[in-house]
Amino acid sequence: MKHHIVILGAGYAGAFSATFLARQLHSDDFEITVVNAEPDFVERLRLHQLAAGQQLRHRPLAEIFAGTGIRLRVARITGIDAENRSVTVTGDDGPGRIEYDTLLYALGSTIDDHGVPGVGEYAYHVAARPAALRLRARLDELDEGGRVLVVGGNLTAIEAVTELAESRPRLRIGLVTRGELGGRLGDKAHRHLWRAFDRFGIQVHENSPIERVEAGRAIAADGTAFPADAIVWAAGFAVHPIAAASGFAVEPNGQLTVDRQMRSVSHPDVYAAGDSAFVIGDNGLPYPMSCASAGPTSKAATAAIIAHLTGRRVAPTTFSYIGNHISLGRKDGLFQLVDGDARAKSGALRGRAAARVKMAIIDTAAWAVGHPTFGKPNRKYRLVTTRDSFPSGSAA
């Protein structure tokens, strides 16, 4: 019987991991199943563009996985039975159950409502494709002068509000944040950010934490009401609760607790990658939930899975974090470098050059999903029969 690897989620981390494993493991010994709620690979980093009215390239997962032997199951995960090593799902063909020998958990993240009442009922977001399309449809309904309010002051909020302002200049766009706009940026980047906001005519309300959202308005803690025809919630990310509900060891925020090989500390047949995983970076700080986490965590997880299942040694992975790329519409951007303590450096790439770098990184990330072994020979490693003999540690 073949060893069954099941991958939950086909975002950047999940899709890359699936194709890499398929090209490295022998099909006589392994089968790989990917479970994803949508039939397409979604470029989450571009969802603010989709919401603003732009068209994104269609990337069917069936085409990405063609010729790899990967089985695609388009369904939603409803639960994980860790004791019996199975996943329950529901899709167009009804409910089902998928058994696994090794599980890679890569369900990513969604918006963090911070417990604020009304967010789920009255706010829009750009953390998933269906949500971005709902926001887009709402914006299409608004007349000239319609009011749009983005809640949040960091990367996602900045990218969303500037994209909307550039693509929909007939609307009145505003932003409200509990702290300082772009507070993590250095002085040069911060000044450039404010110039961009002034150019777009975005009205900013700092130090105004929102305590509830109602139909047509957001209410701050001091009672100030911010009226809006569309409220976009972009105030941080939270992970799905399935991991915690399944009995895996998790952090207080619900991320899976893993070792440096992205292996669950409570269930050795379970690995995690992307935003779902809690891992300490090389600087001693928790690795952030961001686009930058997908690559290193998926590489570490796939390397460990291959090593543990084929009797090889696990190569160490570097979890470094060098900075933040921020788009400010299609023709402007920022690249803020950070030091070893994740604090902003004085230098920052700004303007059109930064926008080009950001787009190049996004294009490369999407391309890499379909070409995970570029520059490396494909391997066909065989399954070892004695799992207790799996070595660990650094590569020889």
TrEMBL record:
Q: Which Pfam families match?
A: Pyr_redox_2
Span of the secretion signal? none
Q: Does the entry feature the keyword S-adenosyl-L-methionine, yes or no? A: no
Any one Gene Ontology MF annotation carried by this entry is: NAD(P)H dehydrogenase (quinone) activity
Single biological process term from Gene Ontology: aerobic electron transport chain
What keywords sit in the KW lines? FAD, Flavoprotein, Oxidoreductase
Cofactor(s) recorded for this entry are: FAD
Report the residue ranges that make up the FAD/NAD(P)-binding domain in this protein. 4-283
What family is this protein classified in? Answer: Belongs to the NADH dehydrogenase family.
Q: What is this protein called?
A: FAD-dependent oxidoreductase
Name its species: Nocardia speluncae
